[in-house]
Amino acid sequence: xxxxxxxxxxxxxxxxxxxxxxxxxxxxxxxxxxxxxxxxxxxxxxxxxxxxxxxxxxxxxxxxxxxxxxxxxxxxxxxxxxxxxxxxxxxxxxxxxxxxxxxxxxxxxxxxxxxxxxxxxxxxxxxxxxxxxxxxxxxxxxxxxxxxx
Length: 149
Prior knowledge:
There is one protein chain. This protein is an all-alpha fold. The chain has one domain (3-146). It has helices at residues 3-46, 53-57, 61-78, 85-112, 120-146. The radius of gyration is 19 Å and the shape is elongated. The mean pLDDT is 91.
């Protein structure tokens, strides 16, 4: 095996390790955090209705899930060593922004949900967008954490 083949094998192992880390995180953090929504969907279906984004996400629960996912990923990022320090600071800072926005938005939704001007569709669609941002930023934390191994 020449030097290039050894480097290729090492890179392949790193990529497989990263994939494993992301799959474990996705399954045991993200998917499990979404199970209550699957159960709620089953309840809605059992009642003969169709589960819509508005029914599932307009109360802000998905924003809370987003906060928990981001907070967990951030915690593991900051204890993962000094490698890629600047990148970790940037990704961690973005996660802090997502966490603050998600927390504030949940508070706003909680306060305004009984108001006649409350737009449940906007709240549910915005919650989905916030969730997507939290998953992307959290995946960045997981990848950076994995890079230290």
